[in-house]
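Let us work through a complete example step by step.
Step 1: write down the sequence.
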Amino acid sequence: MIKVAVVILNWNGKSFLQKFLPSVLQNIPEYAELFVADNNSSDDSIEFLKHNYPQVKLVINHQNGGYAKGYNDALKQIEAEYYVLLNSDIEVGSNWIEPIVDLMDNDHQIAACQPKILAYDNKQEFEYAGAGGGYIDKYGYPFCRGRIFQEIELDKNQYDEAVEVFWASGACMFVRADKYHELGGLDDDFFAHMEEIDFCWRAKNAGYKIYYQGTSVVYHVGGGTLHKSNPRKTFLNFRNNFFLLYKNLPSNRLVPIFFWRLVLDGVAGVKFLLDGSFKDSIAVLKAHFAFYRAIPKLKSKRKKLVQTRVSKVYQRNIVYEHFVKKITKFNSLDQQRFS
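Step 2: predict the structure and record it as tokens.
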């Protein structure tokens, strides 16, 4: 069994493979192997790989089940101690694997870990999808060290230390393989977006830790498959956020949190309308109805999980902190409120 399997999930991403595979191959240690799992691409990605990179191992998925199912199907076929779920639009830095593997080797309670994620087009600033490690507030809104909503911080080495976080970004997530399978992998029903937050929450409910290692650095383009301004992404983010809350919240917090989320999502829908984003406003409404239809299935999943009060949740409302109090940087938040 290999120690580290770096697995890139590809769907019609030949251009990204052409651009970013060389950096991955150049910076992969001897104990790691590179895989590309193809999600039933209709371009010539597979032919390109076979002709130009025969050393890369191919895993073929016969349907495009999205990010979650794509990785679940692929990782069933790969035996390793650690998986690295790596987006195809990422350039890796030198020595990006070793610091995280060393960290996880020394603490077997760490189920998943991410590196520092900077923007490919501006390497001095953090990237939206993960930045310096992920958190949620008490209402389930995700944010990161280095990114609160659309406010992106410059990297000034302020988040270089290894720390425990709430969630690790699926753009580049190191995960202990046995824990991945023990926890049931990613939830196929998410399709894409926030499935890694759900996975990390389930891991924390099971007693494991999620970490960020700032001495490992990668550079992410972001939005390669679905840009953050796309209404489809709005739909998935709002629907999936409700999915992960319903599955993972303790029973005594379920009703009050959902009440306030209905109010806050209503405000978000109105704001989209006022900003001229009619399709995003409709996407929020559709997300709610999709969640209501999914409740029977989610209830069955919830019964199989343990829900506990977990650590690294910001015990305030990040929406209020950002839009009313105008807080734009993670270090400006009350650090005593992370419990």
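Step 3: interpret the result. DSSP finds ten helices and 14 strands in the chain.
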